[in-house]
């Protein structure tokens, strides 16, 4: 890794404008190489893409922001069952620090998830990250669910676009105060809001 990373937990209301500017720059540089469209939400001082997180795990090193994970408590629906989760998203790691991603940030967030006593942490990732998540799941009680459709509202309403998006990502579930056997059966997850 080569760099000493210091993880900080920051509630959203603790961030000032300079923090948002620094995070927005981090996300543009992190998501930009995957496509200009992916960097677009982070223009100017916007440090979130869809739903705004309530808590962030931010890794800093001598060069600034090194990695990030956001958390937002929300109710989702698994088929017709309402379920409180802590959605995890806005994953990012600076390109020079490969291997410092989800597992390190999750270790930082896990004690907070336990304090919040949410039944589950939930997140989605692109299917291309399956091998990475599978490696991580060997060291953590993370379950990867496939063939689940996830419906989200778009960040902004537009007259030329449907207001919802339906995707087939990998769904990641981490039991916190319940067991994985308590996760409801179903093939559709409705966020009832934008993706974190």
TrEMBL record:
Signal peptide: none annotated. N-acyltransferase required for nodulation. Acts in the production of a small, heat-stable compound (Nod) that stimulates mitosis in various plant protoplasts. The keyword Cell inner membrane does not apply. This is Nodulation protein A. Belongs to the NodA family. GO terms for molecular function: acyltransferase activity. Keywords: Acyltransferase, Cytoplasm, Nodulation, Transferase. It is found in: Cytoplasm. GO terms for cellular component: cytosol. It comes from the Bacteria. InterPro entries: NodA, Nodulation_prot_NodA_CS. NCBIfam families: nodulat_NodA (TIGR04245), PRK00756.1 (NF001974). Pfam families: NodA (PF02474).
């Amino acid at each position: 890794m080569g760099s000493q990373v210091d993880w900080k937990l920051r509630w959203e209301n603790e961030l000032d404008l300079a923090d948002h500017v620094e995070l927005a720059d981090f996300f543009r540089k992190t998501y930009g190489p995957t496509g200009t469209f992916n960097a677009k939400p982070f223009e100017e001082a916007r440090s979130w893409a869809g739903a705004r997180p309530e808590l962030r795990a931010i890794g800093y090193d001598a060069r600034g922001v090194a990695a990030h994970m956001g958390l937002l408590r929300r109710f989702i629906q698994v088929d017709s069952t309402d379920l409180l989760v802590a959605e995890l998203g806005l994953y990012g790691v600076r390109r020079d620090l490969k291997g410092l991603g989800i597992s390190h940030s999750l270790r930082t967030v896990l004690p907070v998830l336990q304090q919040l006593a949410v039944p589950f942490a939930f997140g989605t990732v692109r299917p291309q990250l399956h091998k990475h998540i599978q490696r991580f799941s060997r060291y953590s009680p993370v379950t990867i669910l496939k063939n689940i459709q996830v419906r989200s509202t778009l960040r902004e309403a537009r007259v030329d676009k449907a207001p919802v998006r339906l995707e087939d990502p990998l769904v990641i579930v981490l039991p916190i105060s319940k067991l994985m056997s308590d996760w409801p059966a179903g093939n559709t997850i409705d966020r009832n809001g934008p993706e974190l």
